[in-house]
Amino acid sequence: MRISINKTISTPIYIQIKNEIREMIYAGTLPKSFSLPSERKLAEELGVSRSTVIKAYEELKTLGLLDSHMGKGTKVIIENYNQLLNNEKHTLPLSWYQFFDSNIAPANDHTIIDIIDMIECKNTIYFSGGIADPELYPVDTIHRLQENLYKKCGKDMLNYSAVEGYYPLRDSISQLMKLRHISSSPKEIMILSGSMQGMDFIARTFITPRDVVIVEEPTFMGALQSFKLAGAKVIGVPMDEEGIKTDILEILLNKYKPKFIYTIPTFQNPSGTLMSLERRYKLLELAYKYQVPIIEDDPYGELRYEGNPIPSLKSLDQYGYVIYLSTFSKILFSGMRVGWIVAPSPVIKKFSIIKQMTDLHTNVPSQYILDSFLREGLYEDHIKSICREYEHKRNVMVKALKKKKNSGISFEIPRGGYYIWCKIPDGILQPQLLLKSSHKGIVYTPGNVFYPEETDGNNYIRLNFTFENTKNICYGIDKLLEAVEESASEIDPLSDYKQSLKKPIV
Amino acid sequence: MRISINKTISTPIYIQIKNEIREMIYAGTLPKSFSLPSERKLAEELGVSRSTVIKAYEELKTLGLLDSHMGKGTKVIIENYNQLLNNEKHTLPLSWYQFFDSNIAPANDHTIIDIIDMIECKNTIYFSGGIADPELYPVDTIHRLQENLYKKCGKDMLNYSAVEGYYPLRDSISQLMKLRHISSSPKEIMILSGSMQGMDFIARTFITPRDVVIVEEPTFMGALQSFKLAGAKVIGVPMDEEGIKTDILEILLNKYKPKFIYTIPTFQNPSGTLMSLERRYKLLELAYKYQVPIIEDDPYGELRYEGNPIPSLKSLDQYGYVIYLSTFSKILFSGMRVGWIVAPSPVIKKFSIIKQMTDLHTNVPSQYILDSFLREGLYEDHIKSICREYEHKRNVMVKALKKKKNSGISFEIPRGGYYIWCKIPDGILQPQLLLKSSHKGIVYTPGNVFYPEETDGNNYIRLNFTFENTKNICYGIDKLLEAVEESASEIDPLSDYKQSLKKPIV
């Protein structure tokens, strides 16, 4: 057995010895039952310490190549290596792409991922995404609650909870729902790892490939992705200032038999629209008439900066047609990933089957903490204080957007929520504006991701006003308007004409 | 406007007023623009305080039925109620069952849910499930780490993280993987909300309905459920004391082209089997030969109570055919729901698409805490101390099971992990034994849930030895043996004969 070691390189000697012996075993030079020299002897031969050889032998034992017994020395315990190697010679690294299911194979939309990645770049002003202002996180309160909980029930906080969620939290949320005029028992409430998980469960429970699903247009891109991944044909219904256009909806309900209607009636994402009460009644009426369930997504409902509250669809629904989704992510913080769903019990039962097969239950310490937060009555005051701040930030952004006359940007002032939905001048190429803005250190979300057909929405961008501080909002909007102006000045007046030339002549 | 109130019933007066007015609006008795009496006037009429009426009107405003303006009084603002009501008269509560996708509709296997629910019954001795001993949770350490983290980076801990996980934790796990002889960069590691989530992602990424998936028989029921829900045909391969029988596997690989092979090579769930090194090489060889990926699930690998470690498949795999799953749930505690997957980067990319559409990312505070735990070097000592305890508990359970000669129960002593897999006497009816045991306050998991075809496994039960204390283990096993004895004494010697009579005569 010849081993050559090199004391001048940085690889530790014992690793060199291990690798040499391993290669000899792999190559069949050292066959099964071959007796290796004793540690002392090999150490002498190589001019190294005995402990170095011991270490090398230990590594090889851990790899399952050697074994040693008192008095019998150290032996090779693997055979068939030659044969194995012969087979392996033809082995190619696996091409994983061939194994992906056809639904997931083409999916490469990393929009949310890319956007979140961008937060890492500290110098970017971030109007994209929908993140609460970290300065408003009640960190000290959460810390205090946690402190008490660890003292009182440390072990329980680290153990499993029920699949549907920690019961006291379901109960506290049932109380919170009463404040939103929704009467629901804790058994009709399921705790989710963020309300996005509810979207996934809905998609998996209801959608059979090629089912039709109806959404507002534009709508939350996460919902679009979930429904499409489950194989749904997603059809958008336009909105006006009162919300989803129910006349068009009725035509679609007549034409298709959709599995459900997905809506964000209050301070809609991305448009900021607040669905009027009459429109809500009309929507319910259509759901009843055509026997179609409604999925009401309500992450922003309590973030109201002006006007009277309008009751949720769930609170108006008398016949159990509405599934209601909400979350703590937009009110408190998103890192804990805790949301909830209110649904009739047959639906909760199906969801719990999927829940136990995905993450079993939601993070328990976070469920305890949020339950404490609600029970101590801290929620209402927190809402009030963040609404004051966000109203101010919204006003700052609106003012900044209006500073330049003739910027070509137009928008409705949202009465609540997280976003301003801006129309940009016709003819501006979205990728060009995105690039120009990012060079100026500004990111926003381009409109097309909110449309079922991503070819739509090119005239819109979504701006979030909750995350950045007011200084950055002012500076960032200035830069954005610059980028819009520059892009507009580069619009090719003949582009429409050129585009028309490309179309086939019929 | 006539309102009748009843002061003798428990419904608050303002609610009675609200309900009466609401009914009148619904019924069209109070049409749109109808002026309600002033609060003062109505209070006088009804003989109640003014604040009661104010409260009732406020509720009606929140419901969107009334509005009031200074000097103009309070008016009804809803029309079309008659029409709405006419439509609604024919509305039936929605029958949700008709909307469920056909995959999910028949799913009603609540085994894990039911078992977890049972923990709530404090008087039950719990040999079912796979839960770490709560007495061994490092509660004080976690509390201390958390304390430091809140002081140092409270805000960041509550914010979003990257979809693939908090990078420092991915890095710490990459170091941990080195101790398991797996070399992987942080980019090949994705943090999961429990390793069960990995199973779900694998099912959704790889399985197209009617694909064949190969598993050990018996195997983890959660994996069976996930694969089946995704539409796979799941085929089991028997095991012997060295693990999966690779000769039978090869026949199946020849016959089918399976999407992947799912295995728990080390201290298998439920059988406790430790796959031999030679078998591991043989399994890899077959994977290479037939170009089939291997999913290696390793929740128990570090819980070794005797014998030498055997390297994981992932550490032996030279060609990137193995996806490796692990978790903190069995080593530390399960309430935080943090696991991880090590996979080639094309797979991590697909998983991150699904991750962002399900829970976006794993709970951030827990990722920070586990990262601190690993970085402070607390993991290795923790493993050592729990292995000592679990070895002891295993020995106690083995001794208790062997106390009665001729109990008819037989088993192999597992060299690690969480479970003892027991064969019970032929002829005992599983539901009867389950019932008898539960009457004696003992729960365990019946063998059939671990088989692809649940008609198999009726001669086995799985006992967990980590959760209960040694006193309960002794007492519980005594009771279980009693139940087995009683069930055995009731075996109908003619049952086989009777059963055969029921079969159609061919």
TrEMBL record, chains A, B:
Top-rank taxon: Bacteria
SUPFAM superfamilies tied to this protein: PLP-dependent transferases, Winged helix' DNA-binding domain
Subunit structure: Homodimer.
A molecular function GO annotation: pyridoxal phosphate binding
Keyword field: Aminotransferase, DNA-binding, Pyridoxal phosphate, Transcription, Transcription regulation, Transferase
The protein's required cofactors: pyridoxal 5'-phosphate
Protein name: 2-aminoadipate transaminase
Family note: Belongs to the class-I pyridoxal-phosphate-dependent aminotransferase family. In the C-terminal section; belongs to the class-I pyridoxal-phosphate-dependent aminotransferase family.
Annotated HTH gntR-type domain residues: 11-79
The gene coding this protein: lysN_4
EC number: 2.6.1.39
Listed CDD domains: AAT_like (cd00609), WHTH_GntR (cd07377)
Source species taxonomy: Bacteria, Bacillati, Bacillota, Clostridia, Eubacteriales
Alphabetical list of SMART domains matching this protein: HTH_GNTR (SM00345)
One family name in Pfam for this protein: Aminotran_1_2
